[in-house]
Amino acid sequence: MDKRTYTVIEGGSIITPQGFRSGGIHCGLKKTERYDLGAIVCEVEATAAAVYTTSAFQAAPLKVTRESLADGKLRAIIVNSGNANACTGQQGEADAYAMRATAARSLGVAEQDVAVASTGVIGELLKMDCVTSGIEALPPRLSGTESGADDFSQSILTTDLVKKEACVSVVVDGKEITIAGAAKGSGMIHPNMATMLAFMTTDAKIDQASLQQLMRQATDLTFNMITVDGDTSTNDMLVTMASGLAGNETLHASHADWDIFAKAFTYVCQSLAKAIARDGEGATKLVEVLVTGAISEPSARAIAKTVVGSSLVKSAVFGADANWGRIIAAVGRAGEPVNPDNVDIRLGDITMLRESRPIAFDEDEALVYLKGDTVRIFVDLHNGEGQATAWGCDLTYDYVRINAAYRT
Amino acid sequence: MDKRTYTVIEGGSIITPQGFRSGGIHCGLKKTERYDLGAIVCEVEATAAAVYTTSAFQAAPLKVTRESLADGKLRAIIVNSGNANACTGQQGEADAYAMRATAARSLGVAEQDVAVASTGVIGELLKMDCVTSGIEALPPRLSGTESGADDFSQSILTTDLVKKEACVSVVVDGKEITIAGAAKGSGMIHPNMATMLAFMTTDAKIDQASLQQLMRQATDLTFNMITVDGDTSTNDMLVTMASGLAGNETLHASHADWDIFAKAFTYVCQSLAKAIARDGEGATKLVEVLVTGAISEPSARAIAKTVVGSSLVKSAVFGADANWGRIIAAVGRAGEPVNPDNVDIRLGDITMLRESRPIAFDEDEALVYLKGDTVRIFVDLHNGEGQATAWGCDLTYDYVRINAAYRT
Questions:
Q1: A95, A115, A303, B3: which one has the fewest Cβ atoms less than 10 Å from its Cβ?
Q2: B190, B318, B363 member nearest A316 (Cβ)
Q3: ipTM of the complex, rounded to two decimals
Q4: At A114, phi and psi to the nearest 5?
Q5: CA–CA separation, B193 vs B187, rounded Å?
Q6: Which residue of B has its CA nearest to A282?
Q7: pTM
Q8: Are B157 and B29 in contact, with CB atoms under 8 Å apart?
Q9: Number of A:B CB contacts under 8 A?
Q10: One of A195, A227, A389, A396 is an active-site residue; which one?
């Protein structure tokens, strides 16, 4: 295998890297028979790191997970959907600790080696009888097979229409390393808060601080560059476990193969992030905004996110309307320096604005392009070297329908 | 009249203060017969000030208006709708200057005493033949009557469903001062950018620098605290003309009656701003968010705007859903310091959260309240003395319909 690239593994999943089992069941938190409790278990103590929501309100599970991750090691992640265990006060905290304790006992690992995640209703206490008996029933349902991974991926979903998985392999020190992830996230819906959660596994041997830093950097380029409706939940969390079973020399920032490993890792994150954006509530299209020529990368990011998050741009995409006026208005309000006389805007291959002057284009061609399921908007600011990409989706009637639903 | 209050004048308009005439006509910019050209003229040289959009892209008319306002004096404002004259390059700039020149000639005033405003399509050049002959036809249509004011108010609308006017009187130095305004703004729609424009008249005699500062302060509390869909246009402008004909001692920040004048002025701005929010595209309700107990006023403003601008909160209001989880998530992502354990959330009279704990409430009562046309959300952060109010509207199917419309 060419050392300088990574290979996408179609159909790979969180158990493809060496050393992992996973599974999911229905324990009773969701009304229907849908899976609502899952776990990923590593057969050895994995090097681990996490990135959390920046919301001022941190759900109970995050506190427990931070504690478990203080030593940078995990054996297992226990996740439930159907209830976010957020805004649940001291009882919620106690319940999150109890989840961890039960999982540790049930899986035969130490409590501080277990991370906890929850997603779903805000402000309601967990049905702990269901959770406890569910966790106790989990072990026989955990396996190193695709079917167990699929069950896990299903068990973490809330309003998502599809599961989201990604897997790549890359060569480090002549050894094949696999990196995989499973994520959920779709937007927010009452009564469920469709938090963004992502769980990644790899068999790479890696220094914990380097893993933590890589996760932060990859998150900033991917998960933090998506917007469905601009809302940040109280539960967002990304956790990675690295089993080390691939047998490479410990990866760290100065390792000869660090760059390609980081690229592969970031690819998995990007793949999951785009899948989340595409599955946005009510979405019919993935929207990708690529900004170049900004004064800096942070500036490009701010502009890309503003454009892809604009309700007017999103509505225009839904309506298959090649509306550069709304795009430029979004660029203008991002609070970033722009030269208003030298902006290019392109929709796919179709240039609509050059040096801030409208360019005649084929409206039929634009319509056909906009009716596809992936819309790319290119903005060149000719003002520097900063570039960034952000992802989102269109704003549709279904978004309103989903989010305006009366509670029953 | 009690000097310490102001009196709302129902049915008052921009010609109620002494010294103003106004009118509107159809000159041919809009497809239907709707009025699309209007003017306000002051019979004397008025002390004047303006506040402009912060967009990085400033439409051509703003440049011309800034020039005219350099000396702090105006005789007239000429406005067209149906075309924003934005992103129109050098030709657009020339057209904006030509509009000013024609208006000056037609109205018999100096060019530098004329302000220019435009709203509508972005990126298309003005039909100058229509504009020129329209301006030449305007003078006989200008009057000091309600009917002329109504024509003006109509001529500035784009996607608005209703005109927006407000008028108050207040006593300064024993003289009755009147302050009035006409505004337009509804959101953005293709092909029109429904810019926010507000024109205010008063017969107060006032120091120009004090007027400028008052406009800035009033704008920060009102027009800058509304959001329909989070977008800022390239054309937003507020202009005030003060004729001085009321005969008071020149108002300035240290004048004994300054405070009550400022309150009255701000009331007019607030009234117009709320009317704009209520008339948001597709809106069925005005949403008002009152934040108290923030660490500072700027912090309270940021939080109030985040809550009222949240797609999820807006959808919940549309669906008459008493969803405090979405409100608290919006508070949490505003990037402001909050104590997560001591937040109260109230919907009208109905407390839903106290000290961050859910409070049982009457769902039927909440439903009735939410089905009304004004929804007030109260957030108390118990973290300081900062307070602020922001206004917006619900997110509805009609918003999507209006903004996703295919261009014809």
A1: B3
A2: B190
A3: 0.74
A4: -120, 130
A5: 8
A6: B400
A7: 0.82
A8: no
A9: 200
A10: A195
